[in-house]
Every structure is written in C-alpha cells, then in structure tokens.
Amino acid sequence: MASFLTLDDVRLSGKTVLVRVDVNSPLNPVTGEFLDDSRLRGIMPTMRRLADAKVVLLAHQSRPGKSDFTSMERHAELLGVLLGREVTFIDDVCGERALRAIQGMNSGEMIFLDNVRGHPEEMGLRKSGFDELAGCEMVTKLASVADAFVCDAFACAHRNSPTITGLSLVLPSYAGLLMQHELAALGTAVENPPRPYTVILGGVKCDDSLDIALNLLERGQVDTVVPVGVVGNLMLWASGHSLGEDNEAFIRNSLDGEFERTWAMAIQVVEEYSEKLLLPIDLAIEEDGERVAISVGDLPTKHPIYDVGLGTLMAIRPAVMNAGCVLWNGPASYFEKPAFAFGTIEIMNVCAETEAFVIIGGGHTSTLVVQRGLSEKIGHNSTGGGACLTFLADKRMPALEALEQSAAKFS
Ligand code: 3PG
Prior knowledge:
This protein is α/β, with parallel strands linked by helices. It folds into 2 domains: 7-178 and 396-410, Phosphoglycerate kinase, N-terminal domain (Rossmann fold, 3-Layer(aba) Sandwich); 195-355, Rossmann fold. 42% of the residues lie in helices and 15% in strands. The chain contains 18 helices and 14 strands. It has helices at residues 38-42, 44-49, 73-83, 96-103, 120-124, 130-134, 137-143, 162-170, 177-190, 206-218, 229-238, 245-255, 259-273, 310-321, 342-353, 363-371, 386-392, 398-410, and strands at 16-20, 54-58, 88-90, 110-113, 148-151, 173-175, 197-201, 224-227, 282-287, 290-295, 305-308, 325-329, 357-360, 380-381. The strands form 3 sheets. A 6-stranded parallel β-sheet has the order 3-4-2-1-5-6, sandwiched between helices. A 5-stranded parallel β-sheet has the order 8-7-12-13-14, sandwiched between helices. The protein is elongated. 49% of the residues are buried. The mean pLDDT is 97. Bound molecules: 3-phosphoglyceric acid. 3-phosphoglyceric acid (3PG) binds next to loops.
C-alpha cells in the first residue's frame, strides 16, 4: 500500500477535523430521495472512529448544471439517521457562516457543509498543480480553522481539486477507513488475487475496460477475461466477426475520440492473449421489439445486440464457480429493458453463488447488486465508479499522491 498515514497513526479526539467524503448518490428525479445510500453507509466506520472529534464533512453531489446538483442538506439528514446522532447542515462552504460554525463546535459534534462544487474553485481548479491548489481560497480558509484532514472519498480519489488534494498539502492528513478498505480489496484484484482469477468486463466503457484488461494481463495476474455487453461486442469485432453497420457505429460513437486507441488495445488482447479470452458464443438482438437469440456465426446483424445468450452464460458459469477470485465490472446487457436484463442478472446470480472472493467494480453493477439485496454475498462491492476503474487500470490517483506528500511533509 502507498506510504500515507491512516487513522491508526493518530489520535484526533477533541480536534477539528475536515473530512472529505464522496456521498454523491443517485437521486429520484421527482422526489429527490436517495435511490442508493451505499456511499453514506460506506463512511460510517470513519464517522464512528471520529466520534469524539469535531467533524466537519465536505462533499459534493453531482456537478453544477445537472438536475441532481443539490445542496447536501438531505445527505446530512440521512447520515444523522444512519448514525443515530445529530448532523448539522450548514448552508455555506468556506464563507463566514461556515467558519463561524466550525469555530463554535464542541467535541463530539458533527457538521456537514454545503456542496463543495457550489464554490467555483472546486471544479475550476481541477487542472491546477498541487501548489496552486494548496494556496487557493477554499483551502486557505478551511485549513485556518482545522487541525487535520481526513480523506475518505475513495470514489473521487481520481479527481484533483481543493477539497480532494489541496487540503492534504497544508494539513496533517490521513486516509479514512473506507479509503483503506477500498484500496486493500481492490489491491487484491490487481496484485495477489486468489487463483484462478476470472475478470468479467462489460458495460459501454470499452476504453476503461481494455485499460483494465491489459493492465492485469500484462502483470500475468489473470486467468480468464470474459468480455460481455458492448465490450464483448467490440472483442468479437476485433476477433474478425463483423457486427453489422449500426452496431459498429454505436461502438465508434460511444468511444468518441478514444476509438483508435481502444481498437489497438482490443487487437493486442486478441493477438497476444487469445488463450485467456472467453468470448461470447451467442447473443440476443432486438427485432421488432422482441428478444431474438442468435449465434455468433449469424453475425453481422442489422438489429441492435443487447445481451449475451444462454450458451455464453453457461460457459461463464464454471469460470466463476471454479475461480478463487472474480472481478466483475459493467453490465452484460441493456438491463434497463426487461427483455434484455437476463444476462446481467444471471452473471449477478452466479457471482452471489460462487465461493470465490468476488469484487464488484463500482458504478451500475454495484447499484444493481445493492438493489437486488445481494451485497452480503459479495466479497467487496466498491463504492467507486470512475475511481475504481482508474485504480484497476493502474492510472494516476491524485488524492493518494496528495496524501503521500502530506505524510512526507508532516510526519
Ligand atoms: C462519482 O460518482 O464517480 C464521483 O463522485 C466522481 O464524480 P465526477 O465524475 O462528477 O467527478
């Protein structure tokens, strides 16, 4: 693990502690209620560990301009209910009201500041270097009334901003318990997975999926790679099966400027690691609004491919049941359409059934596992979406770099 400090290295009782969390959650567009509260539940261990500190929570919900860009009032309320204690919402980020509230706190109190992305610096300084972040207004003001910073926001550890990286550079800083837990579980997926290790990659983010596949294949850490969903379609195409004009155009368009790079990775996987690939052997297309099964030999098709077929699912089953470790990221199908949810649900069921250590890589797949009540049967259900993909692909995680710099500076 990286060389940063954790809550085991410090006693923060009675101290004023800024805690960056990621509780960005899917909300019901009509009522604003939480559709999934996993990220709030995920930070509970850190909240309990800091029970006798003065805890100041910093978080974002969505992005300015989006319909689910809200204040953090409901988050504060729900966190209070989950913790069974008062969490006071302050309708300010780093202005007079926030600073006065922080300075007036007693030990054991907790306040939740407003959406940090409501302050222009939080999004505006994303491309800035660490020095500029360390000197910006948000960091200077908040740090002036705090003793320490805890980063428990694994789900945005791949972002760079005043409250994710900037605060670590000016205050003694510690990784929170969720951050540690995520890094340990996902570290298993990258560094020492119990073998055999099966990695199922689906969804539409083919570039991210291939970054992960290549990282794991090049490390010699994976036994079977199972591409499904749009990733499966791309890998069939790269293996020489034309998908049909519309299906191929869909992949090109969804990758935008990343198509050439992704295609090159797909070809590399096919050429160098074909013995580890378990490709779909059959699919389901939508024809006149109906689900129709086809074999891969029937390709190309002018109809959209929305699911893998039964034969493919039967081939995936032993690769999951006999594995020591399974990583699954991204749906196998267009599951929002009931006729095509089958592949995704079957993979979820076999992941819940196997004795293997199963890691679910965040995003849609994690939400589905929670909604179907299967979390207890899963080894690790990540709270990170993009952060999880970034970590698994071994790309830069600015929040961790900043924590390391903090440890070097303040230890
Ligand atoms: C997420 O939900 O993945 C994180 O909160 C990061 O959100 P962002 O992609 O808007 O930065």
